[in-house]
Amino acid sequence: MKPLLIGIDSLSYSSFMKCQPRVLLTLFNDINRGVVVNRTLNKHPAQAWLSILDMKIDHSVNTFLSSVGKLKLVEMTGATLVNIPITNPTYGEIGIDYRAEVEIEKEIELVKKSILSKIQEKPVIADITALDRILSSNTKIDKCKLYEKVDRFIGELLSKVDDFILFSPYGEPTKENVHEEHGVYLATVERPNSRRPLELLEISLQFLKLNKGTKIY
């Protein structure tokens, strides 16, 4: 079983604590947890994700890429990419139209199947875009119903995975093209410094640590 890096875009501690999702709360109490801070790359998903995958900050990215070159983190780990929002449709084994009203249940099921079909042989880097897509276009939706579906997905997925990092590169959308600066970090690998938040590039380094077999519980 290889490690998993799973993003849940727009997963926010504010709604996390309000909605009390069962699996997430259990993980919060049982494994390494922290806060992801992202003050400058929180306007578009491609900004944050490309920085993680290429292991360098690039403020010039403000839309989806038309083509994708070599990505440093993928080259270093040999990871399979699943549903990564750096292109539209999303990049990797699953391609979701970011602007279409793709139902959260459909995306979750496709991503889960793809991850589980690959992770026995190769590390996987995957993402769920539904929270971000839906909350960016519908501010009146019941967030807790969305969190319930995401929580069920996380429980079903992580029960079959040994080593993982679950994170959000930013929090919920606050206005057009801007998100909360703080995201979630839950992982089987210890944070590099328990007294401060993690930067985006540290997510990359944490995944490298998992792949080198230096997990710390």
Structure, described:
α1 (about 15-20) packs across α7 (about 145-160). The two termini are about 15 Å apart. This protein has a six-stranded mixed sheet, with helices on both faces. Strands 6-7 form a two-stranded antiparallel sheet. The protein contains eight helices and eight strands, in the order βααβααβαβααββββα. Helix content is about 40%, strand content about 15%. It is globular. It has about 220 residues and is an alpha/beta fold.
Summed up, the helix count is 8
* Overall morphology: globular
Mean pLDDT across all residues, rounded? 93
What is the total tally of β strands?
Answer: 8
Low-confidence spans: pLDDT under 50, at least 5 residues? none
How many strands, which pairing sense, and closed or not: the largest β-sheet? 6 strands, mixed
Helix content: 25-40%
Helix vs. strand class: alpha/beta
Strand content: 15-25%
- Spatial order of the strands in the main sheet? 2-8-5-1-4-3
Elements, N to C (H/E): EHHEHHEHEHHEEEEH
Radius of gyration: 16 Å
What gap, in angstroms, lies between the N and C termini?
A: 17 Å
